Amino acid sequence: MVGRTPVFDFFGLFETTWASLYVVAIPVGAFFSAKLLKEFKLIFLPREEVLAAFIGGFIMGVGAAVGRG
Hints:
Elements: E1 8-10, E2 14-16, H1 18-36, H2 47-66
Antiparallel strand pairs: 1-2
């Protein structure tokens, strides 16, 4: 079983791995933590900042693909 990711049954509903649960659990846990500490605030970023982050992420993705990383 070397190199295989363990898959487990989630109460008979579906099969999943720990990695897929992290994708859901981290944002949900952060949300509940912020609500509990009364620090939750929903904000919308300026359009220019979102566009700059998207372009930067795209360039990084192209660089990773070109560098095979």
